[in-house]
Amino acid sequence: MISKLKNLGPGLLFAGAAIGVSHLVQSTRAGADFGLGLIWALLLVNLCKYPFFQFGPRYSMATKESLLDGYKKLGMWVLVSYYIITFATMFTIQTAVTIVTAGLASSLFGNFISVEIWTIIILIICFSLLIFGKYKLLDKLMKIIVITLTISTIIAVVMAYLNNSEELALTQIFPKNTIDIAFLIAFMGWMPAPLDVSVWQSLWCIEKNNGNKKYTSKSALFDFNIGYVSTIFVGIGFVLLGAYVMFHSGETFSDSAGKFANQLINMYTINLGSWAYIIIGIAAFTTMFSTTLTTLDASPRAMARTTELLFKKSSFFSYTFWIVLLSIGTVVIFLFLSSGMGILVKVATILSFITAPFFAIINYVLISSKHTPKEWHPSKKLHALSWLGILFSIGFSIWYLSTL
Q1: Cβ atoms 104, 260 nearer than 8 A
Q2: Whole-prediction pTM value?
Q3: How many CB atoms sit inside 10 A of residue 251's CB?
Q4: What pLDDT digit, counting tens, does each position of 82-138 carry?
């Protein structure tokens, strides 16, 4: 059991990156507003996105190269498109997740330090861990973080259930009014993560495989499945928490992710008792800290490799260059454009939604092409699920754009 745990890595990093605002904010709000009525949406979107995320480790282990190398083989335009999309969204996404983490840190560890200072402190901590500890430390830390997150979520759900006197109906709901439909689209769009995270997964697999003979193709897929199931499990956990504690409470929640997270902790404390503060606090903070840490590692890692493939230069535009640029850019956006964060996040969200079909199609084309050994091509069932996912992704994006 211990040896299997040691061999896990990229799958848990995927879970750490995916379990963030989509789970803490969106899943909880789904439970608060609809009870258990949107469980169908959570399960459906995870099923439809599964193949495209799985193609990341599948391609990497089959070819010993990342999806980015595969994108270049499909055509330079694919790689350029990825480069532009990532550069356009990475600063805003990093700023958003770091601010939520800073808000939780302020609530848990004392508000004697402003959220602005907490943002800088958290960035410095994450930056230091990644620069000095590199991938090996990130790999070890994520095991602790995901286990802590899972255990604290389970404890919170059990205690919320024991303190709940009303039966929750399992009747599934399809929203009908414009506001509820908009929420459903946002809920499904970010669950469990944007599809470009598949690229991060492939890069982490390559890093894990370097010098690790025990990390085989079989263990890589097992690792990914563990991480993917974890995101579903934790997502359902937060839906249950929202349903047990907030459903029919009449509470109006803030649209700000940071304020919402603090409202969330306070609501649990009021309903479950003071003991819940630390449990929910740990679950919420580890959720967002894992996202902040993994995104700060993944975006620079992806941009460094993309730059190398496009311009054949790796000395200056290295991982270190991109992580420094991302850290500075995050602070600048937060300090000078914080008032416009809503617009910035909306732009990043729209880009993630409308680019989902792009990543779904190119991942599917790549894994089914001559660039992937035939024995690693998807099975008939995975082919069928991929087509379902592509149609779902295209329809989802059109539906989303029609509501703007």
Answers
A1: no
A2: 0.86
A3: 13
A4: 999 899 888 888 888 888 888 788 877 766 777 778 888 999 999 998 988 877 777
Range of the domain at 236: 2-402
Task: Give pLDDT tens digits for 326-378.
Answer: 999 998 887 776 555 556 656 666 677 778 899 999 999 999 999 999 999 99
Could you tell me which of 117, 125, 119, 114 has the C-alpha nearest to residue 102?
119
Nearest by Cα to 196 from 384, 13, 20, 351: 351
Using DSSP's 3-state secondary structure scheme, residue 317 falls into coil
Q: How does pLDDT run across 315-324, given as a tens digit for each residue?
A: 677 889 999 9
Query: Domain of 354: which CATH number?
Result: 1.20.1740.10
DSSP codes, 189-248: HTSS--TTHHHHHHHHHHHHHTT-TT--HHHHHHHHHHHHHHHHHHHHHHHHHHHHHHTT
Q: How many helices (H) and strands (E) would you count in the chain?
A: 16, 0
3-state secondary structure of 358: helix
Query: Could you tell me the CA-to-CA distances from 348 to 88, 154, 156, 353 in Å, in that order?
Result: 8, 32, 32, 9
Task: Tell me the HSE value of 130 on the side-chain side, using a 13 A CA sphere.
Answer: 25
Nearest to 99 by CA among 42, 28, 24, 197: 24
Going by C-alpha positions, the residue among 377, 388, 385, 353 that lies closest to residue 187 is: 353
Instruction: Dig out the tokens for 62 from the structure.
Output: 């089959």
pLDDT at 4: 57
| Residue 65, Cβ density class (10 Å: 0-12 exposed, 13-18 middle, ≥19 buried) | middle
Please tell me the total count of domains within the chain: 1
